[in-house]
Design goal:
27% of the residues lie in helices and 31% in strands. By secondary structure, the chain is α/β, with parallel strands linked by helices. A hairpin with a 2-residue loop joins strand 7 and strand 8. The longest helix is centred in the middle third of the chain and has 13 residues.
Length: 209
């Protein structure tokens, strides 16, 4: 997986542009409404989804496995702390955050990795804090394509494995971690003419106690 994303960055350094994803904008509004001031973004990439939070007074810390992406974030003058490493190795610090935002990452993890990742994110929330995940839905056009590795789990390209969520798997994986809301969002697939948009599920959780 690392090699795939490194190749993507090297081949097309800003493959998704610099505009934030629609779900990042919606999450920014949600975090502002909930007075979230300090957030963690696992899988921050080159920071296209970080700036919208920073521009609205929210402090951002990132985690990113790609050194290339971290360098691109620096080149684009994103002044924030980014831990270099895999989300599988969380936590990287002992801080508790008001919020966690994770975009288009969790579905790239295995069953065991997803379980650990969700718990690690939840454990790094302050009491009352929120975490928001945007993940691929079974409504996405690539669902069922490629080699099936398990229930709703496919290798859609060589080395690119995806788990596709529906309401039951969201409840199963997030229900014990403060699940409060799910919604679907169709993200405009920028810079990819004649390709269908992605159907994502937005998952919101709140830490109780």
């Amino acid at each position: 997986m690392t090699e795939f994303w490194e190749a993507s960055f090297i081949g097309n350094q800003t493959m998704w542009g610099f505009e934030p994803a629609d779900s990042a904008i919606l999450t920014k509004d949600f975090f502002l409404e909930k007075n979230v001031k300090d957030i963690l973004i696992p899988g921050i990439g080159y920071g296209r989804n970080a700036k919208v939070f920073m521009d609205n007074g929210i402090n951002v810390t990132g985690i990113e496995i790609s050194k290339t992406a971290i360098e691109l974030a620096k080149l684009n003058e994103l002044h924030l702390n980014i831990f270099h490493g895999s989300v599988n190795d969380m936590p990287f610090d002992n801080r508790l955050y008001d919020g966690v935002f994770c975009y288009a990452l969790i579905h790239l993890l295995s069953d065991e990795e997803r379980e650990k990742f969700i718990k690690d994110c939840y454990d790094q929330l302050k009491p009352g804090g929120y975490m928001v995940f945007t993940t691929i839905s079974k409504e996405a056009p690539m669902y069922g394509k490629g080699k099936q590795l398990g229930k709703d789990y496919f290798e859609i390209l060589d080395g690119v494995k995806m788990f596709f969520y529906d309401s039951s798997s969201v409840e199963r994986e997030f229900g014990k971690h403060g699940l409060i809301e799910t919604s679907e969002i169709v993200e405009p697939h920028k810079n990819a003419e004649n390709k269908p948009p992605f159907t994502f599920t937005m998952i919101k959780c709140q830490k109780v106690g």
